[in-house]
Design a protein that fits this description.
The complex is a heterotetramer, with two copies of chain A (80 residues) and two copies of chain B (141 residues). Chain A is of the alpha+beta class and 80 residues long. Chain A contains two helices and five strands, in the order βαβαβββ. With 141 residues, chain B is of the alpha+beta class. In chain B, 45% of the residues are buried. The chains are: A alpha+beta (80), B alpha+beta (141). Chains in contact: A-B, B-C, C-D.
């Protein structure tokens, strides 16, 4: 399964990337994906919290990621 | 719904008058506006400038949701929510929210709801630049 | 106190930007503005125009009291309250109240307090002109 | 005692005057003065309510009017 992943704000600084494409053998929920990301980018544990958006909408941890979904990691927002 | 809502995410300087003119209506009795301004300090440290970045398409969607909910939830006529991305200097305006209504209480409530929700849900990030470094606002515990 | 308050009762057109510029401050994080606008109807009747008259010196005193109380009661930086007297047409602006603050909640509260109190205490009277006559607003039971 | 009296808004229409000077033999409170005005201008009973200001400040009914006070009759306000 291919997951297109977008990084923003401090997460972009920590990963050193704006986006990446990751491939997995089995199906994953957002919760699984979060565990994977925290292993791959240990610096992410320094952030207060982060949310996930799939195809430009917020999703919860139990969302099952679909082939070619665009998954965005959303660090704490600070607009306004 | 569309003629009641104006949502903008822009790299250009915000125009407050444009927001006012959008929501102004001969049947409305009052307009409440919130204008954000870039402060020259954070927790006692002098801020030199700051930069807003956004997940642009999702930010526009979330801003639109806020505007639509405000129209549904409060007895208001029109709402404009305009936000800047890019580099800003002290005194510059990152956000303007204008709400028109027959009843001013509804306009106050809707305007406050919109800015409160914007600061919670819209994927926009602020980086503050100090003399000795830079910080992503809200990012750390 | 004086450099935190701008009160104006004028026969000239109000300038919203002037109110904004007065309250804007590099240490403030947000500005809340209430702008009254002349509505084209009252209880379903079409309003042609309206006229504000005032007990001028007392109105200025009462407006000043409101501004001073707002500064004392809420955690705000500056407040401007400008009101027009004379003949106004539909869409014209009888009143502008602008409040700056570090904390937006205080600015919303102070701005709403100011317009609510203005409508209760300041000796200004509105006469509405209809096709078939004129009425002093609020005068009758 | 001389009382300078100012009329505004609908009260100006009812009395047909912007101001008048009234003279009384005895001392008066604002309450007494209100009774006098309602007799002199019966049209005032049509108004929802009105307040009084002395020398540009609101006063209560028990205020004792002083020589040369400027007393303003304040019908329901409608600014903003």
């Amino acid at each position: 399964m291919t997951i297109n992943t977008l990084f923003f704000g401090i997460v972009m600084d920590i990963t050193g990337q704006r986006k990446t494409t990751l491939t997995f053998e089995k199906e994953m929920t957002i919760g699984d994906f979060q565990v994977y990301l925290l292993k791959k980018y240990p610096g992410l544990t320094d952030i207060k919290n982060f949310a996930f958006a799939v195809n430009e909408s917020y999703v919860k941890e139990d969302y099952k990621i679909q082939e070619n979904d665009v998954v965005a990691i959303i660090p704490p927002v600070s607009g306004g | 719904m569309n003629n009641k809502i104006s949502v903008l995410l822009t790299y250009e300087k915000l125009n407050q008058q444009k927001c006012y003119d959008f929501v102004q209506d001969d049947s409305c009795g009052g307009i409440v506006t919130f204008t954000g301004t870039v402060r020259n300090h954070t927790s006692g440290k002098e801020v030199k400038q700051l930069e807003f970045s956004a997940y642009n398409p999702m930010a526009v969607k979330e801003l639109t949701k806020i505007a639509e909910k405000a129209i549904k939830r409060f007895d208001i006529l029109k709402i404009a929510i305009h936000h800047v991305v890019g580099l800003l200097q002290i005194g510059d305006i990152p956000v303007v929210i204008a709400v028109s209504s027959s009843h001013r209480k509804a306009a106050f409530e809707a305007c406050e709801y919109a800015i409160d929700t914007l600061k919670e849900t819209v994927p926009i990030w602020k980086k503050e630049f100090f003399e000795d470094g830079e910080v992503w606002v809200n990012a750390h515990p």
